[in-house]
Specification:
The complex is a heterodimer of chains A (about 90) and B (about 220). Chain A has about 90 residues and is an alpha+beta fold. In chain A, the strands form 2 sheets. In chain A, strands 2-3-4 form a 3-stranded antiparallel beta sheet. A two-stranded antiparallel sheet of chain A has the order 1-5. In chain A, a hairpin with a 4-residue loop joins β3 and β4. Classes of the chains: A alpha+beta (about 90), B alpha+beta (about 220). Chains A and B meet through β2 and β3 of A and α3 and α4 of B.
């Protein structure tokens, strides 16, 4: 996995939720739960190998489910144009 | 600031803002401003209309406020008991309706029914009058007041106040904040300034009936 968050996005965690402002497209995105945790991991340059265990621990799911969720969500982020790179 | 008359055109309508750390450029179809922010001088080519000047001032003030820790908010603003209460909302939320009811009752002075200014001063949020009005089209009310509270608006058959989740209030404030810049740095400042506000002044939700101004009793 080699994806990076677009440099022209601004984001911030508030009250447990991750807010993402895409000024170029005048859009506001809101993430919570596992999605917010995955985004936070990507913002810190973490790999799939680091993000998946964090999901397992935080949300008490098995590793296989967590991996599938991480890959699925990152795929959505790529489709939405919020991250760039290859899964 | 030197103003030069130039009628320009109606397009584009949305201002384009750019800033390289020193020179601020704000451009729309009917105005074109180049401002040296260090020398505090500038030249503005502008169509000689009230609407054009209003639009330029909104663009300039929103930029300056965001960079000084504050912002302009699409909101109704009322004064009660010497404090300001803001009611953020997008078009159709009821800002002007609420403002007209308050003005008619004499129970709450109206700061603006369209845009209010917020700034953090000496650790406390203050609301300021602005020249920007919506349907009420009154002259701006000069002055500043300590912020007493923020209430998200909801039209209802009956009046009531409820707690608003911080994430919900944050989202609403972001959507109501006036910002014409498209760069990430400005967006980050907007998010930080807004987070500071919701942390210091948790918002409630005001359900209000358009029958009368009884909702004023619930505020402050």
């Amino acid at each position: 996995m080699s994806v990076k968050i677009r440099k022209d996005l601004a984001f911030r965690r508030v009250a447990g939720e991750m807010f993402i402002v895409d000024s170029a497209k005048a859009r506001l995105h809101e993430l919570n739960g596992p999605a917010a945790l995955i985004w936070e991991g990507l913002s810190k340059g973490r790999s799939e190998a680091t993000i998946v265990p964090a999901i397992v621990e935080e949300f008490e799911v098995d590793a296989k489910t967590a991996l599938a969720d991480v890959r699925s969500f990152i795929s959505e982020l790529v489709t939405a144009g919020l991250v760039e790179g290859e899964i | 600031m030197e103003l030069v008359e130039d009628r320009g055109s109606q397009n584009p309508f949305k201002p384009a803002v750019s800033f390289d750390g020193r020179t601020l450029k704000i451009k729309r179809g009917d105005f074109d401003a180049v401002i040296d922010t260090r020398a505090r001088t500038g030249v503005v080519k502008v169509s000689p209309t009230e609407q054009c000047l209003d639009a330029f001032l909104r663009s300039l003030l929103s930029f300056l406020l965001i960079r000084s820790g504050g912002f302009m908010l699409h909101s109704a603003g009322l004064v009660k008991g010497g404090k300001a209460y803001l009611f953020p909302g997008i078009s159709g939320a009821g800002k002007s309706t609420l403002s007209k009811l308050a003005a008619g009752s004499g129970g709450g002075g109206v700061i603006s029914d369209e845009i209010n200014i917020l700034r953090l001063e000496k650790g406390r949020w203050r609301a300021f009058g602005s020249p920007f009005w919506g349907e009420m089209r009154a002259d701006g009310r000069p002055g500043s007041w300590t912020l007493g509270g923020i209430y998200l608006l909801k039209k209802s058959a009956a009046n009531g106040i409820s707690i608003c989740a911080q994430a919900q209030s944050y989202k609403t404030l972001l959507r109501c904040l006036v910002n014409f810049s498209k760069d990430a740095k400005t967006a980050a400042l907007v998010m930080a300034n807004t987070a500071r506000l919701v942390s210091a002044s948790p918002a409630g939700q005001l359900k209000f009936s358009k029958e009368n101004a009884d909702f004023l009793r619930l505020i402050g």
